[in-house]
Amino acid sequence: MDFIKRLTKKIFQYEARLVLKKYKPKIIAITGSVGKTLTREAVYLVLSKKFFVRKNEKSFTAEFGVLLTIIGCPEGKITPIQLIKNFFLGLKLLIYKNTYPDWLILEMDSDKPGDLSAISSFLSIDILVMTAIGEVPSHVESFYDISNLLMEKRFIINAVKREGVIIYNTDDSRILNLLGDVDSRKISCGVEEKSNIQGSNFKILYSNDKKSSIPIGMSFEIINNSDTYSITTIGSIGIHNEYALLLAFAVGLEFKIEVEKICFSLNKYKNLPGRMNLINGIKDTIIIDDSYNSSPIAVSQALSVFKKIKSKKKKIAVLGDMLELGKYSADEHRKIAILLKNVASDVICVGLRMRKLSEELLNIGFNELNIISVDSSEEAGVELQKILETGDIVLVKGSQTIRMEKVVEEVMRHPEDKEELLVRQEPEWLSR
User: Fold this and answer.
1) Structural domain for 402, as ranges
2) Which of 4, 72, 131, 156 could disulfide-link to 35, CB 3.0 to 4.6 Å?
């Protein structure tokens, strides 16, 4: 199977090169460690009303995603029949003159060494969008050391055209260091005043019910050239939304789209499942579903918002292992403890690595009776039901393979809506 994968990758790389040479689309590349997919969706939302654009699809893996998107394959599954279909789809593009997008929006991940260097060897990027990386990025285990992972990011930076532009998260120190000696034109986005495009006045929105304050969404302002624009999203409350929309706003300006139209599109933004989405729970509770994935910076962002939520009842954090952190794993799990202090009343730790968190919570004086450690998401769902009371607010977060969406399913008010609301509801995930 590995041989077939390597051979297929080489064939698709060759086809992708030829397709790019023939149709000459312009490229928007999106890279980073957190918020890439949300940024991709926001950029597509802004551009698709006016331009012919294509973006990666969620089913594509990091290794094949860019190649298959260039070829225009609807499926990224590595099965013999689909591989043959994808091959002939690329061949058809090369033999015949087809309608092809003017712009490609390519989300680029680096799960392992060589991913970005292979892609950047044949791409010329017009706009590079860089989301946050964080002090200890996800996937660092495959690179052994953070410096090696950052070196991989360098390949994609070097693929930017001389006349291209880099739009980046200026609040991330890793990004700043990477771009420090880069001569390309740069546009900074962040919540700091030094940003070219600044996010400000972040607020959590609540229902008008006088009996209870239920979070329903968020709002913030975009400041550009002393002008201020209001953005509101309903159904989710993540700071990652703010960053994604700031970056998309900057891309829209590069395309010379009227600011009013950019804001109109951003106010229509709907978050993807598993990214700080608000879901009604049993016993009139609120579940903040952040079960898509996890990393140190993503946990920090989630807990910073969790802290801001007004609640007269318990705040319960259900946190699963953060994977692929390698030698940094133990320390990064311990560091979460201080973020939880004076934020969560109860903590459920899910997985072997999260035992380091439970130990550190005890070390900083967290009540032992309010800490629960379990091995699986199924057990976590059962334990959560036992302590859940009317009006509680629950944050659920963990890496993909910990399957924290099962916790949400266990306590959501309408589990019949799980296919629409939860991540990983595809048959291949449900069969695992």
Assistant:
1) 277-430
2) 131
